[in-house]
Specification:
With 87 residues, the protein is mainly alpha-helical. The protein is 53% helix and 5% strand. It has three helices and two strands; from the N terminus they run H-E-H-H-E.
């Protein structure tokens, strides 16, 4: 949790610094949301079962989760918008 907060603070600070120095680089925080991955493949069968059931109900497919990141990377709308949280 603290590392995610620190990454957010760093992104906002970096964005401000780049604007001050007039460097045309865009930095944003892209949050893909909860995606169905095989992250827990090496855990107990109980954990895997719970993840599969709850993940099916509450999460996105990996291709859907990637849309936020792709939007930040290639969208013309995001050009010049820096220091934002995109979900």
């Amino acid at each position: 949790m603290n590392s995610k907060l620190m990454n957010s603070i760093l992104t906002v600070a970096l964005s401000r610094r780049l604007k001050e120095e007039k460097i045309p680089v865009t930095v944003n925080i892209a949050f893909p949301g909860l995606s169905q991955t095989n992250l827990l493949r090496h855990t107990s069968l109980t954990s895997q079962f719970l993840w599969n059931v709850l993940g099916f109900i509450f999460s996105k497919y990996p291709s859907e989760g990637a849309q936020t990141i792709l939007y930040c990377a290639i969208s013309a709308e995001m050009r010049g918008n820096s220091g934002r949280f995109v979900r």
